[in-house]
Amino acid sequence: MRNLLLSLLMLISLQVYGQVTIDVNTLPDIGDVLEFRTFRDFDGDTTYRAEGENLSWSFDDFLIGGTAVIDYPPISGGLDTIFPDATIALEAGGFAAAGIRTDNTIEVIGVAGGNLQGFAFNPQRFPEPFIDVQRPLNFGDSYETSVDLPFTIAGSALGLDSLDIPVSIDSVRITSNLYKKETVDAWGNLELWDNDFEVLKVTRQDSFSLGIELQVPFFGWVDLETLLSIFGGGGGDMGIDTLLGGLGTPMGSVSYAFYTPDRKEAILEFQENEVTPPMSEEPVRTTSGRISADIPTATKEVNTGPALILSPNPATDRLTLTTEATSPFSTIQVVDSQGKVMFNRRNFDPKEGLDVSNYTAGTYMLVVRSQEGYTTQMFVVANRH
Known about the structure:
mainly beta
């Protein structure tokens, strides 16, 4: 009996020892800059979705297409006067945001304002903080966080007469919702480019959606879709998507990130998105991601395709592509400095060039796949005067 108890205690202690804990020492500090390599069009196995204990993962085949950073600068640029208790500058829903770093979280407390389809709105503080990063993390942990950002625009500013609704619209209230849920659902060993890591795997769900309400005399605030169904405005074709150019459709992604106990950044992260290609009604799932920049690489070089010249560089309105490729590009992508895909097209004729007139000033990566191989090239969009 004694030996049985000792054996059980040894098994329990081994199990506890084997599990990976991501402690508070991995929480980013103010001023940290986390650097990554980014990859696109990953079409390998999907074992990164696996859940459980003491698992094994192995990945070595990536198309490295650029770099990305996540930075945590100190609060500045007027944010400190709007949110005097904030200590760190962040980003939320595409807007400049203010945050606070506590002992175990980085929290977004408000946004400094921005614009949606050209309509400005004032800074606002969240009723409850939105959690950007939380530590420590252990197997089985889960948390979710969300926030609503409502703002109001005069009905006349949106030209709502086109809705053909037989009532006057005093104001429009647009509420954007940010949602995130993180679940620690696996731990084990990860082999990446012949490097071995003990890791904790976190599955993250992110979504962004918009709701629209109209202020109608005698009715008060009424949901746009409800109002259209009552009055049949726009012949049944007018809705949130039409009014806001598609931004009313819920958008989201699922990410699978692997963390080690001694790093502030994920050493490997896969992100799955659904996109609808031009001239198609069927969404296509794409998998992209990033790898910590300081991990020794064994991947093949990506610039094996035909030479590619971009001009003018820096550009302001249009980018000309000069290449020796003998066929259209299989795929072409433009990725910004944060790893966001700005442009994605299949069977692209380089003679078309690229319209960059709507891009903000900054550095971008062009990633091209052709029959001859892969080519990446940096270009800059300059400030317009």
